[in-house]
């Protein structure tokens, strides 16, 4: 259990996907203007990451041992199609949930964080359960970063920012400061 | 892309600077921030991306009549993933240590939105020759941006360029620049710098009022046409102090 918590906390804080590994920057820059939207985006990310992790474990276990050079292509194709199916299912079963999360699903199926998770999981040799903890931790970390960023951006809307900084420049500097803060978590594990 | 005709030169140079993928359009940020902690990594990443972009542009442009519209995005991604797999294996065989340093980010070229964007916006609509020019331009722009960031980060963060030390022992490296936070800061400051430059170009230069009613006015258009040679765009004229309101 301790091992699993270590994977979870490490993926969420120490190696935060967005702020330390630079994965999933598109949603981080694009959908971080409002806290509500950021929360829903984070939820959709956790969902897709979990599916991805399961798919990647399955593929690694049963398919890719025979053809490792197809790893990249099969990850992309299988994850994208599965998320598409899940999206259609949600749309059919729960329109309310679809309105909350569904619109983000096609946006994030091919984002760096999703493919990155599958590749990191493979490189580190995580099994099914470890992969799940890794995925939820990574998703929680993404959500945390998104919500923090959105809260700060809501404040900067009201602040008297110089005209030149009213674009992505300011967002990147804020992201840099957040990343700096997250470096502090590296001290969590001493051994 | 807009349907209006462009010249081959425009196709190439558009991607290099005016629509630079990283610095202007903010596409492909993931590799631009993650692997630019040294110049060597930046160059390897740029070359790999250039190769993938060029290969997929040629293939997409060649096959554009055969790819059905409904599944075109999936087809593009498959094509891109194929070229990335090739690049991944070639880098692993030729420069194993750089391949190790770049790690998963080579594989992540697949999801670089810049590449998919060029296929969707350009290569799928234009002849092969133009697609090659466009890919070369965009790839060059990406390389410029990455090498620029890599140079800043390595020079400041490590005191070296391509591994050769630049400063004496007295130089205290800015460790922050090679850490993840430094990537955000470098790109942030670059963007702020460009925004400031654009702002400066856009704002018409205010007429400066000298004593005795002499107004020196710089016409931005003329100044630019004169290539910034200074005096050509400046004209001095006498005016009454009251005419300030009209300016």
Description:
The complex is a heterodimer of chains A (191) and B (247). Chain A is an all-alpha fold. Chain A has one domain (8-183). Helices cover 74% and strands 0% of the residues of chain A. Chain A has helices at residues 2-14, 25-30, 35-63, 71-93, 95-101, 105-108, 112-123, 128-158, 168-183. In chain A, helix 1 (2-14) runs parallel beside helix 8 (128-158) and helix 8 (128-158) packs across helix 9 (168-183). Chain A is globular and about 60 Å long. The model of chain A has no long low-confidence stretch (mean pLDDT 85). By secondary structure, chain B is mainly α. Chain B folds into two domains: 8-200, no CATH class; 208-246, no CATH class. In chain B, 59% of the residues lie in helices and 6% in strands. Chain B is built from ten helices and five strands, in the order H-H-H-H-H-H-H-E-E-H-H-E-E-H-E. In chain B, strand 3 (208-209) and strand 4 form a beta hairpin. In chain B, helix 4 (72-94) crosses helix 5 (96-102) and helix 4 (72-94) packs across helix 6 (113-123). Chain B is flat and about 60 Å long.
Short description:
Chain A is an all-alpha fold. Chain A has helices at residues 2-14, 25-30, 35-63, 71-93, 95-101, 105-108, 112-123, 128-158, 168-183. The longest helix of chain B has 31 residues, at 128-158.
